[in-house]
Amino acid sequence: MKFLKDIKRCRNLLKEDRKKYWNNNKKNFEKNLMKIINSYKIPKPWKIYVVAGNFISNKKIMPYDWDSWSATLLICATKRQNYEIMLFFNRARSEFLSVPGLIRIVTHELKHVDQLIKNPSDEIKSKINDKFSEREEKEVETEVDKLPKEFLEQTALESVLYCYDNYGCEWMTKEEYNIFMKAKKEKNINLFINNY
Length: 196
Prior knowledge:
The chain is an alpha+beta fold. It has one domain (6-195). It has 10 helices and 3 strands; from the N terminus they run αααβββααααααα. The protein has a 3-stranded mixed beta sheet. α5 (99-118) crosses α7 (130-144) and α6 crosses α7 (130-144). The longest helix is centred in the middle third of the chain and has 20 residues, at 99-118.
C-alpha cells in the first residue's frame, strides 16, 4: 500500500531529533492530509472540502482528549445544491503526525465519505439515532482494521512519543506500557521505539 514504505524513514527520524520531527509534521500538516486524500478516488459529482483547525475551548485540548475528534459532515446532496462533503481534522489530535501516522485517522473519515456518498440521508439518522450511529462507526472501523497493522502502530507510536515529549502518556497495552516505563526509567526512549 502507498505510504507503507515511509514508515522505516519515519522510525529513523523519531530516533534523531523528535522536536524537529514534530515541527516538520505540523508545518506540513495540510500538505500531508492532502497527499492522502488526493490518493483517494472521489466519484463525480461529489466535492470534498477539507478543514484543519482547533476547537475554541476554555481548556487546552490534548491529543488523547475526547474533544480531539475529527468529523465528516454532509454539506448538501442534491442536483440543485451540489454534492458536497466537509472533512474536519482537529489539529490537537493529528497535526504532529507524519503521513503514515495520519493514514488511520484520514482513512476513517474517508470511509465515512463512502457511507455518505452511498446514502446521504443516513447522515441525518446518525445524528439522532445512537444505535444507527454505532452501526455506522462499527462498519467504518471494520474497514479501517483491514489496513496494514503498521499504520495503526505508527499512529500509536507517534502519539505516545508526542505525548511523552510534551504532556505525558496516552493509550497503550500493558506490555507496551511496561516497555515504555522501562525506557523512561533508563532514560532511553529508543528502547520503546525499537519495540515497534
